[in-house]
Amino acid sequence: MKRVVVVVLEGAKPLDVGIPAQVFTTRASMPYSVDVCGVQPGLIAGGDGLSYHVEHGIEALDTADLIFVPGYRHPDREPPPAALTEALRAAHARGARLAAISTGAFALAATGLLDGKRATTHWHYSRILAERFPEVRVDERVLFVDEGSVLTSAGAASGIDLCLHILRKEAGMAVANHAARRLVAAPYRSGGQAQYVPQSVPETHGERFTQTREWALRRLHEPLDIPRLAAHARVSERTLSRRFRDETGYTPMQWIMRARIDRARELLEETDLAVEEISSTVGLGTATNLRRHFRAVLGTTPSDYRRTFFRTS
């Protein structure tokens, strides 16, 4: 059981606070407990006409395994409280993971823990974040960035993507997919997928490509290549390759490989099928192919993954 703590600051945005609290909610199906804290316990004025009454102060971070800093209003006006900055540094030093949603990246950047690393925030504040913290490599194009012990995400909806990403890494595909179904959320969006930054862009084929991706997921055991995907989407191969990457963060064949690896993960977690059977089922042919691609994507072997995540009930 891991302990998640969500830190509420003055002007905290309701969705940003609620997303990690609800994704990691304390329930039998989740290996997490969740607490919400402030720098001080008591009433905290939030954004959008809401306030929060929290029972815990900053000492809640002392035993947290995963800490979320939700977005808050006007992060460019005042630095975060010094007590929070010190507590986040101390938590990170003892091994806790720190995750910021939207403008929570400002509080995380103030610790210095993002220096030299990639990070993102809501597109409206990305230039301000880059100017205020020049040592941080701000990327406004993506939904979230995983730098291992420090993670950042863009606007509120991408906070769901970040939370599900963390669940996949820590608890496995089955737990993440169960949480996605409970939230009625897309089970997988790449962190490299573009933010919806207002700009002049050609008409997208998002809905058509969504249908093509769903079609491909039902045919992972079959040969899938760019000509076949383009034919289903009714676009040219060049258009598919260019716009598919804009919408998912991956080339079509990178996405197919990720989908096959994710399906293999589910089968390793939930069945006792042999690796050879799984590799055939997900369209990778041989166990050798599965092992090679599994290690390239996840840095481990199918057998080791199964030992970690296999569910006996």
Note down, in words, how this protein is organized.
The protein has 313 residues and is an alpha/beta fold. The protein has two domains: 182 residues, Rossmann fold (3-Layer(aba) Sandwich), CATH 3.40.50.880; 111 residues, Orthogonal Bundle (Arc Repressor Mutant, subunit A). Helix content is 45%, strand content 13%. It is globular, with a radius of gyration of 21 Å. About 4% of the residues have low confidence.
Give a brief outline of the structure:
The protein has 313 residues and is α/β, with parallel strands linked by helices.
Core attributes:
Helix-turn-helix domain-containing protein, alpha/beta, 313 residues, 6-stranded mixed β-sheet, transcription, 45% helix, Rossmann fold, Arc Repressor Mutant, subunit A, Class_I_gatase-like, 10 strands, transcription regulation, two-stranded antiparallel sheet, globular
